[in-house]
Specification:
The protein has three helices and eight strands; from the N terminus they run H-E-E-E-E-E-H-E-E-E-H. By secondary structure, the chain is α+β, with helices and mostly antiparallel strands. Strand 3 and strand 4 form a beta hairpin. It starts with a helix and ends in a 7-residue tail after the last helix. This is Pilus assembly protein CpaE.
């Protein structure tokens, strides 16, 4: 998962987020940035009944936090979403000793390589080097 710092950098670089089911995010408040939330159409909770684990399907879960505005949330894009932002610029993804190496085109005939121990962070670092990135 990308770091909150990288996610903030994506926002500053102009990456826009259109929230959808399956997206994950944090709330930009000191006490909540450690909690990752997922957008879902249905809440599933693990419950225990007579020493057996059950998956409980709920339409909603009551919680003290009713809603937040989009500018209070920081999107944590998944690998597939970051790969989509790179689009056809992506040339090679390789597993190396230090983690992951991505090679991608920044301009016609000009490629760049980034490495990171985390694959999603490597994608995010690559996206940050691009101009005018839009989903």
């Amino acid at each position: 998962m990308i770091t909150v710092e990288l996610a903030r950098a994506l926002v500053r670089s102009g990456v826009l987020w259109e929230p959808a089911a399956g997206d994950r995010f944090v709330i930009d408040a000191e006490l909540l940035t450690g909690e990752v939330f997922w957008i879902s159409d249905l809440t599933v909770e693990v419950q225990t009944y007579r020493d057996q684990s059950l998956l409980g399907f709920n339409g909603t879960t009551e919680w003290a936090l009713d809603s937040v505005t989009l500018d209070q949330a920081i999107w944590l894009p998944r690998e597939d979403q970051l790969r989509g932002l790179l689009g056809d610029r992506l040339e090679v993804v390789r597993r190396i000793e230090q983690g992951w190496e991505l090679t991608y085109a920044v301009a016609p005939g000009y490629v760049r390589t980034v490495t990171d121990p985390d694959l999603e962070c490597a994608y995010a670092r690559a996206v940050l080097t691009l101009d005018h990135v839009r989903p």
